[in-house]
Write a structure and sequence with these properties.
By secondary structure, this protein is an alpha+beta fold. The protein contains 4 helices and 24 strands. InterPro entries: 6-blade_b-propeller_TolB-like (IPR011042).
Length: 401
C-alpha cells in the first residue's frame, strides 16, 4: 500500500511540476517580448535625442527650431508609448491550490484502514528439516562426484599372495589386505603406506571380508562365522557362528553390519551382541556378496546380475544401478557424500557411481595397472583408496582429490 501511495504522489508531483514549468515558460516569454519592445523604444528615443543635439550646430535658427519641435514631438510619442507599456505590464505570481482530497487525506485520514482478523482452521504442509539437509547433501554429493579424481601414492607388491579377497585402511594409515590360502587358513597382511610389509595376522578359515572398528580392532567374516579381533594384542574378542555363510561386512557408527545368506543383513554392537536383522526383500540373497554402509544407507553388490542396490538402514528400497556390461561387480566402498567406488572385476575397471544411482564414471582401467581387481576400500577420514589385483601381486594406494 505504501508503495502505491508513494507512486501516486510521485505521479501527481510530476504532473504539477510539468504544468508549473509550462506556465513559467509562457510568462517568461511574455516578459521577454515586453522587454524587447521597451529596449527598441529606448534605442529609438536615444537616436532622436542625438539628432536634436546635432541640429543645434547646423542650419539657421528657424530650421533648427522647426526640426527640434518635430523631434521633440516624436520623442514625446515614444515616451508615452513606453509609459503605456510599463503601466499596463502584467505581474505574475505563482501559487498552488491543493486538491481538497489531498487536504482531507492529511487532515482527516489517521490510519491505512481497519484491521480485520478472519480466523479459520487450516492445514499447513509439514517439511522435515531433514529434507533441506538432504538437498544440501545432494548438492555436495553432485560436486564431489564431478570433481573426484585419483592420485597414485604408492604401488607395491604383495608377499605370499594367493587369493586377495578384501582390504581396508586403518585410521593410522596402515593397510590390511586379506589373503586366502585354503578353506582352513587365511591371513591378513599388514603394510604401511609405503608398501612395506609389517606382519601377517592368521585367521582359521577361508576369509571373505573384513572391516575396521578402530585402530586396534577389526571384524572379519569367514565360512559361517563372524569374528571380532583385537589386532593390537593378537586375540579374538568375539566369535559368532551362523547357520549359513557370512559374506560382506561393514562398520558404521558403532554398529557392525554382516551379510548372512538367507537371513539378511544382521546388525551387532562392537561387543558382538546381536541387535537386529534387516530383511532386504527386493534383492536375491543368494547373489549378494559385498556390502558397504554410510550413516543412513546400505549398499549391496549383486555379483551375477551386475547390479548395485541401495536401501535405508531399515531395508527400505531406494534405488538400483544396473551396469550395462557383464563385468562381475564385486568390491564396493562409499565416500562421505554417498558416492560409491565399485570394482568391475572382469573388465578391469574401477568406477564411481553417483549418490542417486543415476550415472557412473570410470576412474581406473587396465592401463592404470588393474588386472582382475577384487577388493577396494576408501577411508573417508584420510581420503585414501586401496585397491588390489587378484591375478598378480599388485596393490595400489591412491589419494582421492
Amino acid at each position: 500500500m505504501r508503495f502505491k501511495i508513494n507512486k501516486k504522489l510521485d505521479e501527481i508531483e510530476k504532473k504539477m511540476l510539468d504544468e508549473l514549468s509550462e506556465q513559467y515558460g509562457n510568462c517568461k516569454s511574455k516578459y521577454t517580448e515586453v522587454l524587447n519592445q521597451v529596449n527598441t523604444m529606448d534605442k529609438k528615443i536615444q537616436g532622436l535625442r542625438e539628432q536634436t543635439s546635432q541640429l543645434k550646430h547646423i542650419g539657421s535658427n528657424i530650421k533648427v527650431f522647426l526640426r527640434t519641435l518635430q523631434l521633440n514631438k516624436l520623442i514625446q510619442n515614444e515616451v508615452q508609448t513606453v509609459e503605456l507599456v510599463t503601466t499596463t505590464m502584467q505581474e505574475y505570481k505563482f501559487g498552488v491550490e491543493i486538491h481538497p482530497r489531498l487536504i482531507s487525506l492529511v487532515n482527516d485520514v489517521d490510519n491505512f484502514g481497519k484491521i480485520q482478523v478472519d480466523e479459520k482452521t487450516m492445514s499447513l504442509p509439514f517439511k522435515d528439516a531433514k529434507v533441506g539437509q538432504a538437498q544440501m547433501v545432494q548438492i555436495a554429493a553432485d560436486q564431489s562426484f564431478n570433481r573426484t579424481r585419483l592420485q597414485l601414492r604408492q604401488k607395491f607388491k604383495l608377499n605370499r599372495k594367493k587369493n586377495v579377497c578384501a582390504c581396508t585402511v586403518l585410521q593410522n594409515g596402515q593397510l590390511l589386505i586379506a589373503n586366502v590360502h585354503s578353506y582352513v587358513y587365511s591371513e591378513i597382511m599388514e603394510y604401511n603406506e609405503d608398501g612395506r610389509h609389517i606382519r601377517d595376522i592368521p585367521v582359521p578359515g577361508k576369509l571373505f571380508d573384513l572391516t575396521v572398528i578402530d585402530n586396534n580392532r577389526i571384524a572379519v567374516t569367514y565360512g559361517n562365522h563372524m569374528m571380532i579381533m583385537d589386532i593390537e594384542n593378537n586375540r579374538v574378542d568375539t566369535k559368532i557362528t551362523f547357520e549359513r555363510r557370512c559374506l560382506g561386512i561393514s562398520y558404521e557408527n558403532k554398529i557392525i553390519y554382516a551379510l548372512v545368506v538367507n537371513e539378511g543383513i544382521v546388525k551387532f554392537d562392537t561387543s558382538g551382541n546381536r541387535l537386529h536383522t534387516t530383511d532386504c526383500k527386493f534383492i536375491d540373497p543368494g547373489n549378494i556378496c559385498c556390502i558397504t554402509t554410510t550413516k543412513d544407507r546400505i549398499y549391496c553388490t549383486d555379483y551375477y546380475e551386475n547390479e548395485i542396490y541401495c536401501c535405508s538402514m531399515t531395508g527400505k528400497y531406494i534405488w538400483t544401478f544396473t551396469d550395462k556390461f557383464p563385468v562381475n561387480t564385486q568390491g564396493i566402498s562409499a565416500d562421505s557424500e554417498h558416492n560409491l567406488f565399485v570394482v568391475r572385476r572382469n573388465s578391469n575397471h574401477l568406477i564411481m557411481i553417483k549418490h542417486n544411482g543415476t550415472v557412473s564414471k570410470v576412474l581406473l582401467t587396465e592401463s592404470d595397472g588393474l588386472n582382475n581387481p577384487v577388493p577396494v576400500h576408501y577411508n573417508r577420514d584420510n581420503k585414501l583408496l586401496l585397491i588390489c589385483n587378484e591375478s598378480n601381486e599388485d596393490a595400489f594406494l591412491y589419494s582421492v582429490v
